[in-house]
Amino acid sequence: MSTPSTNAPTGRRRPNAGDGPELVPTHSDEPLLQVRDLTVGFRTEDGRVSAVDQVSFDARAGELLAVVGESGCGKSVAATALSGLLPHNATVTGSVRLDGVELVGASPDQLRAVRGKEIAYIFQEPMTSLNPVFTVGRQVAEVLRVHEGMNRRDAMSRAVELLELVGIPTPRERIKHYPHQLSGGLRQRVMIAMAVACNPRVLVADEPTTALDVTVQAGILDVLRDMRDRLGAAVVLITHDLGVVADVADRVMVMYAGRVVERGEVHELFERPRHHYTVGLLGAVPSARTADGQQRLREIPGLVPTLAEQPDACTFADRCPAASDKCRSSQPRLDVAPASRHEVACWHPAGTDRAEVPA
Amino acid sequence: MATVEAPLVDPPRVAGARLRRGRAVRRLLRSPLAVTGLVVLCVAVLAALLAPLLAPYGPSDAHFDARFDPPGSPGYVLGTDSLGRDIFSRILFGLRASLLVGVLSVLLALVVGVPLGLIAGYFSKLDGVISRLTDLVLAFPFLILAVGLAAIRGASLSNAALAIGIAQVPGIIRVTRSETLRLKSLDYVAAAVAEGASDLWVLARHIFPNATSVLIVQATVAIPAAILGEAVLSFLGLGIQPPSPSLGTMLSEAQQAISRAPWTAVIPGLAIMVVTLAFNLFGDGLRDALDPRASRR
After folding, report:
1. The pLDDT of residue B39 is above 90
2. Is residue B275 in some structural domain?
3. B169-217 tens-digit pLDDT
4. What CATH number corresponds to the domain at position B290?
5. pTM of the prediction?
């Protein structure tokens, strides 16, 4: 394992057969963001650890794609890999194309030009993501000055507009405030204002509501939806909150242990989940209807495996109710189901004839 | 209390302090030791600045009819030395030289050390080189450095400041580097990078402004050390040259007459002690007032 080759574990595998959902004609001709076989590993003292394994997805302009999965499933790593924000010990292979321009392996200067301007991020921690020593107005203006070359006064008046856009009351007063004078919800709105300052085409929101009060969450989600509609941005929303997903997403991608296990339209996926992990996730969500008869929430037995422990097996096999020998010896691929945009990486998808399942 | 607050608020780039200014100043003023230090410092700085107005005589005016007058003699509040020079006047001008060397050398150390510390902390590839060079300077004895400099460039106030400044660079580098390492891992720095900020921009706009409070504290600790260093160098004849007074040269000249006129040594010694103590008390208070960990207690 001491060789610098980063492809060793993945190189043996067959090329991905169902390479994306191109079977379906779409109204927008070309997806804005095309991610193909994105694989991210980290060099550590214990050798190479894989965090994201051959993830492929598209994000289209004006669409909100939710990436769902439990902690450590690689969703944040995949998102930060898009514009090369990973630490130095990360190795990224595969392809990330923004409007046809390849970003994996792009130079630092190219990436810097993309960050903030083309792909913008909203992070989880609004409490610590703002510089404590500058006013929020100045910090919003700073983004404009870096990317748009605006002068101080223009940038400031644009900052006021942006704060208004993200629903901050009395923005003219607020730009003079320091981060510690704002609540978590307001700070997250400031973060969003900074992210959308340059009209980015892809907006990645990494658990933007996790650290916030439930009552504030809805407002933030409204802003995200608004940004999608008004800017026509492709919004990638990373979350583990299925309630949030149901609320705002157009499409959902479920990740488990660094791989995409299921992907589809939000209603389709919520009504007819096909991967047993998705079924388990949905079963673990408390709902008003659960109260009758079923008293306890269902949980998924077991723990998330160490990533890429089983290169030639389904990573969920050990926790799956429908697992067979095949699941432990061969990795299922995302497969487009006929006549739907619902894909699943499972040998024995839920909702199909159970007789098929070998004993 | 307006005059008391002045030195804290004065440097406009004290952005870290600006945010917590109200709280930090209040906490500073609550500490009697820090306030004492601040008041003494203000008096010392004023005395040094206004020395030509306050001093009854020129610092080098000899009065041969009044040699070794003890303190309290008519016309000479703090007495006179072996040449009949007024000690009070010499202390005022000596304070001037000492504070000047202290401030100049620390400024020099900051100008050189802060950028190097920022680079060492931010670019891990250059960290090894800069840190090892720092160790090298640190391993070089201060007095040998000063003697060497004096031999090459001659003994003077500016060369004393240069030697002391060089000796203080490693400390500044280390403090800046460790603060940079801490700040670099914070979310808002990561957020700035995600917004497309360049390395230089991140260093200048996010890391340096947040490191200023630590650096200010470090400077208040470094200045008294520099004043002591100046006294040492001048005592050894490597610093300010007679007849120009500095607290160190006064001590040095007093040693021949120390049994006959002990005040000629005691008074400049006391002056050095009081000034360095005041700096240290103020620096300690400032550190406590600006320390975010202390604030939560």
Report:
1. yes
2. yes
3. 999 999 999 999 999 988 889 888 888 888 999 999 899 988 988 898 8
4. 1.10.3720.10
5. 0.75
Question: Tokens for B274?
Answer: 């009081």
Top-confidence residue, A71 or B222: B222
**How many domains does one find in chain B?**
1
Q: Peptide bond preceding A305: is omega within 30 degrees of 0, i.e. cis?
A: no
In a domain, B195, yes or no: yes
CA–CA distance, B22 with A93 (Å, rounded to integer) = 51
Q: Domain for residue B73, yes or no?
A: no
Sheet with A101-102, side-by-side order of all strands? A47-59, A33-44, A90-98, A101-102
Taking each helix axis from N to C end, the angle separating B142-153 and B208-235, rounded to the nearest 10 degrees, works out to 70
Of the candidates A85, A131, A195, the beta carbon closest to that of B188 is on A131
CA distance B284 to chain A (A): 23
Q: In this structure, what are the phi and psi dihedrals at residue A252, rounded to the nearest 5 degrees?
A: -130, 140
| Chain A: closest CA distance from residue B263 (Å) | 50
Q: Are B101 and B290 in contact (CB under 8 A)?
A: no
Task: Please write the tens of the pLDDT for every residue from A86-109.
Answer: 888 888 999 999 988 899 988 988
Contacts of A219 (CB under 8 A, 6+ apart): A167, A185, A189
**Residue B274 CA: distances (Å) to CA of A39, B81, B131:** 65, 21, 35
Are the CB atoms for B23 and B285 separated by under 8 Å? no
The nearest alpha carbon in chain B to A198 belongs to B195
For chain A, say whether B21 makes contact (Cβ under 8 Å). no
Q: Is residue B63 assigned to a domain?
A: no
- Domain membership of residue B99 as a residue range: 31-51+87-294
Query: What's the whole-number mean pLDDT along residues A62-83?
Result: 88
